[in-house]
Structures are given as structure tokens and as C-alpha cells.
Write a structure and sequence with these properties.
CATH class of the largest domain: Mainly Alpha
Shape: elongated
Radius of gyration: 24 Å
Helix content: 25-40%
Largest sheet: 2 strands, parallel
CATH architecture of the largest domain: Orthogonal Bundle
CATH superfamily of the largest domain: Winged helix-like DNA-binding domain superfamily/Winged helix DNA-binding domain
Number of domains: 3
Structural class: alpha+beta
Number of helices: 6
Distance between the termini: 55 Å
CATH topology of the largest domain: Arc Repressor Mutant, subunit A
């Protein structure tokens, strides 16, 4: 049995050619089917395609590192290859868009209000920060995994319901003051072994859940 690299919970794709391979609808369904190890035969049955077509797609996925070999075993005089997806789910880094990718919001002139600095209340600025976070954390995670070390991160994710726009504004002011105070308390540029970190605090309206389809009241023929 081949040595198996542990399947990642989420893998961020940063190479345009790999993104193009993964975005094909058939290959995307194959990756989903390979959350657990399978062969071309079992995958073909799961996605409703022929074994020959699945084999073609598996070769492409494996060539781009999206599918990994688990084992090879004899089957009816042939060798059956059992493979698994490299991750349980995938995301695309802004890098795959090349020059069209969202710029670093801290770069000069990026996502700025007219005649001022960055508009930190705009959705464009939030999206640019989110894109930078995805790009940077994915790169750091890849390097940490290559070195066999964990990547220390912190995520606070919660929901809050404001009664009015005035309360939201007051909360924003208090939160900004609290973060500024805490950051000033712990910020240290003099320690030799210190390391810079990014701190992002963001809020946006929670999307409404998709409405459930209304059951038909027409009689069944």
C-alpha cells in the first residue's frame, strides 16, 4: 500500500491550470465522490459516467495533485488503482485570476474613497481584505505543512443582531476603541523573536436563508 498523505479539510487552489481542471463540472463531482477512497469503477457508478471517461478525468486530477493514490490491487487480471481526493473541500485563491485578482488593500491607491484613505466601511474594502486573508493564510499553511509544523491562527466567528443603525454605529465605535486599546497593550516592536501578525475584524449583514419551495397542492395523477 502506498504511503497516504492525510486528506486536508480544505485546500486552496492557487495555480490557474489546477483551478481550470477542478472547475470542470464532471471533475468537480468526481472530487466530491472521492472524499472517501474509490476506484474508477466505484466513482463511475457514483457520478453516472462511464469508467473510461472517469479514468480520463482521474488522470488529469492526479496530474494536478487533486487526487492521490491510496493503493493498487489486482482485479480480474488487471491492476485497480484506488485513489482519494487531496482534500474534503476546495477554495480558489485570488491568485488564479492573475492581474485581475483583487489587490492588496494596503497597497497605494487600492480600494480607496475619493481623495481619502481606504474606505473601511465599503463592501469593496471588506472583499479585498478577505481575498488577501485567503491568499496569505493559504500560502502560510502550505509552507507550514511543508515544514511539518502547525500554523498558529485565531478566528472569532459569531453573530449579533442590532436593533438600529445607531446601535450598530455605537457598537462599531466601542469595538474599534477596545481593539485599539488591546493592540496597544500587546504590540511590541523591540523583542528579537517577535513576529508580526495581521488582525482583521469584519462585520457584514447575514444573508437570509434561501426560501424553502412551497409544496405543490395539485393532486397527484
Amino acid at each position: 500500500m502506498a504511503g497516504i498523505t492525510p486528506v486536508a479539510e480544505i485546500e486552496v487552489i492557487a495555480v490557474p491550470a489546477t483551478a481550470a481542471v477542478a472547475l470542470d463540472p464532471v471533475r468537480a463531482s468526481i472530487l466530491a465522490a472521492l472524499a472517501q477512497p474509490g476506484s474508477a469503477t466505484t466513482v463511475a457508478a457514483a457520478v453516472g459516467e462511464t469508467r473510461q471517461k472517469v479514468n480520463y478525468h482521474l488522470r488529469l486530477l492526479e496530474a494536478h495533485g487533486l487526487v492521490r493514490l491510496v493503493e493498487e490491487r489486482p482485479r480480474r487480471g488487471l491492476t485497480e488503482r484506488v485513489v482519494v481526493a487531496s482534500a474534503r473541500s476546495y477554495a480558489l485563491s485570488p491568485e488564479v485570476l492573475g492581474p485581475s485578482a483583487a489587490p492588496d488593500p494596503s497597497s497605494p491607491g487600492a480600494v480607496c474613497a475619493p481623495g481619502a484613505g481606504p474606505d473601511r466601511h465599503s463592501s469593496a474594502y471588506l472583499l479585498a481584505v478577505a481575498a488577501r486573508t485567503l491568499r496569505e493564510v493559504a500560502d502560510l499553511a502550505r509552507r507550514a505543512a511543508g515544514a511539518g509544523r502547525p500554523l498558529a491562527t485565531l478566528t472569532i466567528d459569531t453573530e449579533i443582531r442590532f436593533g438600529s443603525a445607531a446601535e450598530r454605529a455605537a457598537f462599531t465605535a466601542e469595538l474599534a476603541a477596545a481593539v485599539t486599546s488591546i493592540a496597544a497593550r500587546y504590540h511590541d516592536e523591540s523583542t528579537a523573536n517577535g513576529r508580526w501578525h495581521r488582525l482583521v475584524v469584519a462585520a457584514h449583514p447575514r444573508p437570509n436563508p434561501s426560501p424553502r419551495p412551497v409544496p405543490s397542492t395539485r393532486p397527484t395523477p
